[in-house]
């Protein structure tokens, strides 16, 4: 089937899922499941090996459910709903790519970040990729990696190839480390959505206290390692004139406006933050497009609607593997939690209770290590978020558990050669995932782990 057919089915899945979540309509959830099945069939022959492998494991897990569960249909219906939720999440956030790629402000931000002196380039590029990642998600890697390759020319390095290679490595590392912070800092991100869905008692504002603190420390450790490992070659050309950071401040205001829109929708509609994100992201994309088209009359609303409709195949068509990877991980995570039964598992893990806060450190490491062998953080985080709170460990609150799991997720994105983000960055840069994850970023991850362990232990004092 064509990309247009796939994008239409995915858009239909998104709309039906939204109706089901907001109105609590069971028929809408059923329609979403049928459209999702049609969408997956339409992707035949166009999925990556990782996506195909996860679908196979999901099918085997489904077979185990039929074997082990007396009444499997309700459980499978809930799991399909989780798959549709994540598919909708990816599709909704991807709509923001259209106004972002058309925006002169975004291009000016890229120029500002890449034109900085080495001392300022890491923090600005890392923070910039984090902020852009909130809106563009994994698309920020494609956008920034392309800009890095264009700006890092041999002429800009005064003909010194080794300088060009060093700059390339340092900018790509800053990009990856900045993007890896998105699970911690983005209230609209997939990481927060998994935590809030798996731990209903946790509110985002309680989670954010720990998550933003951890993100700040990880950023500072990365910056320090960048400065210490260098190198710092002398400049042969006069420094370029300083470019104002005003575009970045303007983008920050835009990002804040989108986040406030999501929180407002959450309050007005009385829905949880992940559901509000599914509504707020498409609405923000439409309003941003309308602003860009405002000179065409009618406040640009009609033009924005037409443009968004025409570009749906471009926006949603290439998402097949990404939707399958994240959706099937959410699907399997829900089934495995039911098959394992967290209450029974927690009873067998009571020996962990005396470890106290060390359990949060162990959970962080489990997410990190599991990602190295290809287990998607969605699965490991879903399982651990279902088990750890039931242990009732003294001093270990659900928000701290959630933040620790997100730290593990963040470090997994920065190091695992099997994550989708690492595979995309490797394809764009021509550098192997093993080299990026272990040789370039290994010292960073090993440096962050003990720092985060100390922070977790201090947070429970």
Commentary on this structure:
This protein has 461 residues and is an all-alpha fold. It has a domain at 1-94 and 311-339. 77% of the residues lie in helices and 0% in strands. α1 (3-23) packs across α4, α9 packs antiparallel against α12 and α19 packs antiparallel against α24 (442-459). The longest helix has 26 residues, at 204-229. The protein starts with a helix and ends with a helix.
Quick rundown:
By secondary structure, this protein is an all-alpha fold.
Portion of residues within helices = over 70%
Shape: globular
Low-confidence runs of at least 5 consecutive residues: none
Q: How many extended strands?
A: 0
- Beta-strand residue fraction: under 5%
How are helices and strands ordered from N to C?
HHHHHHHHHHHHHHHHHHHHHHHH
The count of helical stretches stands at 24
Reported for the largest beta sheet, the result is: none
- The radius of gyration over CA amounts to 22 Å
Instruction: Report how far apart the termini are.
Output: 58 Å
Category from helices, strands and their pairing:
mainly alpha
Mean pLDDT: 85
């Amino acid at each position: 089937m064509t990309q247009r057919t796939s994008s239409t089915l995915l858009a239909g899945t998104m709309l039906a899922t939204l109706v089901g979540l907001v109105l609590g309509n069971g028929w809408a959830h059923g329609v979403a499941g049928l459209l999702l099945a049609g969408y997956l069939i339409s992707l035949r022959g166009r999925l990556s090996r990782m996506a195909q492998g996860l679908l196979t494991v999901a099918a085997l897990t489904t077979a185990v459910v039929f074997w082990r569960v007396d009444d499997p249909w309700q459980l499978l219906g809930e799991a399909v709903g989780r798959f549709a939720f994540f598919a909708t999440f990816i599709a909704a956030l991807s709509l923001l790519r259209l106004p972002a790629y058309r925006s002169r402000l975004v291009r000016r931000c890229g120029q500002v970040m890449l034109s900085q002196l080495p001392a300022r380039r890491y923090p600005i590029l890392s923070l910039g990729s984090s902020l852009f990642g909130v809106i563009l998600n994994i698309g920020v890697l494609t956008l920034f990696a392309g800009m890095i390759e264009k700006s890092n020319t041999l002429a800009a390095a005064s003909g010194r190839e080794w300088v060009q290679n060093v700059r390339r490595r340092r900018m790509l590392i800053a990009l990856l480390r900045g993007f890896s912070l998105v699970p911690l800092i983005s209230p609209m991100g997939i990481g927060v959505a998994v935590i809030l869905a798996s731990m209903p008692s946790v509110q985002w504002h309680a989670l954010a206290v720990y998550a933003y603190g951890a993100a700040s420390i990880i950023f500072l450790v990365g910056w320090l390692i960048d400065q210490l490992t260098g190198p710092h070659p002398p400049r042969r050309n006069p420094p370029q004139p300083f470019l104002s950071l005003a575009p970045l401040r303007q983008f920050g205001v835009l990002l804040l406006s989108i986040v406030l829109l999501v929180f407002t929708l959450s309050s007005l509609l009385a829905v949880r933050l992940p559901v509000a994100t599914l509504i707020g992201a498409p609405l923000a994309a439409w309003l941003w497009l309308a602003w860009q088209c405002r000179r065409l009359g009618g406040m640009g609303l009609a033009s924005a609607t037409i443009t968004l409709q025409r570009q749906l195949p471009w926006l949603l068509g290439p998402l097949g593997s990404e939707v399958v990877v994240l959706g099937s991980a959410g699907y399997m995570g829900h089934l495995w939690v039911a098959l394992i039964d967290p209450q029974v598992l927690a009873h067998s893990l009571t020996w962990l209770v005396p470890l106290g806060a060390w359990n949060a450190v162990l959970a962080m490491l489990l997410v990190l290590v599991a990602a190295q062998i290809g287990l998607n953080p969605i699965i490991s985080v879903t399982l651990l978020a279902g088990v750890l709170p039931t242990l009732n460990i003294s001093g270990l609150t659900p928000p701290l558990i959630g933040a620790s799991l997100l730290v593990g997720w963040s470090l997994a994105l920065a190091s695992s050669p099997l994550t989708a983000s690492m595979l995309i960055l490797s394809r764009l840069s021509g550098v192997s995932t093993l080299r990026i994850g272990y040789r370039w970023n290994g010292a960073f991850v090993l440096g962050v782990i003990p720092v985060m362990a100390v922070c977790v232990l201090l947070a429970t004092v």
